[in-house]
Amino acid sequence: MLDEQQARTYHSKHFILRSSKIRNTNFNFFSNLSVVFLLILGVSCQNPENQSSPSKSQSIGPSNGALLVGGGGMTDEMWQVFFEFAGGDIARLVVIPTAFDENSINYDPEFKILERNFRARGFTDIQFMHTRDSLLADTDEFVKPLKSATAVWLEGGRQWRLADAYLNTKTFTELNEVLNRGGIIGGHSAGASIQGSYLVRGGRDVEGNYKIMGDPEVGFGFVTNTAFDQHHLYRNRQYDMFELLKSRPELLGIGIDEDTGIIVQGDEFEVIGNKYVAIYDGTFWSPYYNEIDTMETGKNKFYVLKNGDKYNLKERRVQRNRFIEPNAISAEELQEYVGDFLYEKSKVYWNNMLVENDTLKFQGYRRDLVLDRIPIYPYEKDVFFDTDAELWFHFVRDSSGRIVGFDKKTHQIIDGLNQRFNKTSE
Q: Family, per the entry (predicted)?
């Protein structure tokens, strides 16, 4: 596969070659001119869509399971999310402290301090895996704890230690199997960088500094074509990513600050924590306008996301409601959601759902005030969204399966483990 610069060189060389052959023929001047014109026209007309907006690489998340990628330091809320994704009280956790230096390992060789910390977070079934020997990491005996794990935690330290010990071993294979079974892999600091395909700050440069590009460069790749940097804003690393992307433009750069992380499920992630996640995808986005600006692609621009914001890895864009493609739904299915739904017992407020032009519309009534009809679109069964206020409508059914109302929320996921991240719309 040719990268963009190689492609330009390739087309340039072949165009010069073909032009020189034309000049060496016995065609007359007008024949030569016609051929050259046709060649230029052919080149300029090839895939005009790609010429106006260059094709971009995709980043793909795990098809099953989840990742927690933390910037360094964890809030209580972030630990609770990891605990719940791990299975809660029945979680089977494997902790890998291999990123630690030797002093830390020797200080607590049986990892008793770490064990107490995880027990304080609610975990009861905890095992530790550590080696510097990649041959040992490639044995069936060593990987046994991963066979039944529902969660894995990658401790911080130096990410290259994880790469050196576990890449291309049975340990690495079993880590992917944890995800395939629906488990979660989490980590912060070094345990975040290793989860990308490119290992940010993988080692010291020739001057002994930990710059963004080091050796080794290959991470675990739980998210493809992606580089995770950590301690991002706190350590003023926000401009380092441009150095990497200059050499590796196919990568998606994600910088995660301390006390902040992302939960990756499939090809989408949601920001959790107290601070910000910086996105380097060749575009610029602002919540003020909620528009994706591609006018200055490649001009060293980045933007930040906060708690609750979502991002589509595969499409490399913010996953705000106006960018979501609605699912198809039949006219019969749409009629299921039609009706008046009581909002308050006083009947001062109530809502009406109706179908207009094959679109479900929400209309509110406040005393004598009739509000505008808002079109809402199907996302999945019993879940609709609007594209302006970016609300989510979760319809509720009774025991017979009949729709009896709905919850209006500011976030998509309101059931199960992530419910506390949702704020009821007032």
A: Belongs to the peptidase S51 family.
The CATH-assigned architecture of domain 331-421 is Beta Barrel (2.40)
Take residue 99 and report the two structure tokens written for it. 């990123």
Give yes or no for a contact between 211 and 237, defined as CB atoms under 8 angstroms apart: no
Residue 301 CB coordination number (10 Å): 16
Residue 56: what are its φ and ψ, rounded to 5°?
Answer: -115, 155
Residue-wise pLDDT tens digits, 344-371: 545 566 677 888 888 998 877 776 777 7
User: Where are the chain's structural domains?
Assistant: 4-52, 66-319, 331-421
The region, left, alpha or beta by phi > 0 then psi within -120 to 50, assigned to residue 157 is left
Residue 156 phi, psi (nearest 5): -80, 175
Q: How many CB atoms lie within 10 A of CB 230?
A: 30
Helix (H), strand (E) counts: the chain: 13, 24
Buried b (16+ CB within 10 A) or exposed e, 186-225: bbbbbbbbbbbbbbbbbbeeeeeeeebbbeebebbbbbbb
Contact 140, 81 (CB under 8 A): no
Q: Where are the beta strands (DSSP E) in 82-178?
A: 92-96, 125-128, 151-154
Q: From edge to edge, which strands make up the β-sheet containing 303-305?
A: 196-198, 223-229, 252-256, 277-280, 303-305
CATH architecture of 66-319: 3-Layer(aba) Sandwich (3.40)
| Cβ neighbours, 10 Å, residue 409 | 20
How does DSSP classify residue 197?
E
Question: Is-contact 156 191, C-beta < 8 A?
Answer: yes
Q: What is the pLDDT of residues 65-118, one digit of tens each?
A: 999 999 888 898 899 999 999 999 999 999 999 998 888 888 988 899 989 999
Q: What CA–CA distance (Å, rounded) separates 409 from 270?
A: 16
Which secondary structure element, helix H or strand E, spans residue 332, and what is its range?
helix 331-335
Cis check for the bond before 109: say yes or no (omega within 30 of 0): no
pTM score of the predicted model: 0.71
Element (H, E) at 52: helix 48-52
